[in-house]
Amino acid sequence: MKQKRWKPFMMWCLLLFWIWLCFYLSLQKLSGTTKLSSTITKTLLQLFHLSGQTYYMPLFDGFRLAAHVLVFTVLSMLIYGALFLTKKNRKKIFALSFAIGILASVASEWAKLFVPGRHCSISDMILNFLGCILGLGLIYIVKKER
Question: pTM of the predicted model, to two decimals?
Fold first, then answer.
């Protein structure tokens, strides 16, 4: 594969993997997502030598909220990167990246309706939207600096 085609191919593969990861996490049962968040919270508590009972719930809740923003920040950046490397008309890439990110956010939350113990959450969707804005905002700032 030529170098010119290799980068877009890899970016699209990375994007598709990230979308799969987003939906994998969204489609976990409540017990699975709680266990994952709990494991990460306990690891962070040990890493920073914090008392478990004092900091557990604030860190647990904060991590779960931050995860939405982080996942969709990365998603929007990957969408932008894939479109940038393959689309000839680059004027509308920011808007298209944002629209695709928002669509993925809505689909991710909507899919939870079909998982026992999970529910569609407007607040989670708003966090996802903020992640999309943050990711594209970071790209805009970096591009403006160059």
Answer: 0.88
Output the CA torsion sign for 85, 87, 92, 93.
negative
Helix (H) or strand (E) segment spanning residue 118: none
Q: Which residue has the tokens 């008309």?
A: 89
* Domain count within the chain: 1
Q: What is the dihedral of CA 74, 122, 20, 97, to 10 degrees?
A: -50
Whole-number Å distance between alpha carbons of 88 and 94 = 14
Q: Is the pLDDT of residue 52 over 80?
A: no
Q: How far is CA 143 from the centre of its chain?
A: 21
Asked whether residue 93 is assigned to any structural domain, the reply reads yes
pLDDT tens by residue, 104-113: 999 999 999 9
| Residue 19: other Cβ atoms inside 10 A | 17
Write the CB contacts of 3 (distance below 8 Å, at least 6 apart in sequence): none
**Position 37 in a domain:** no
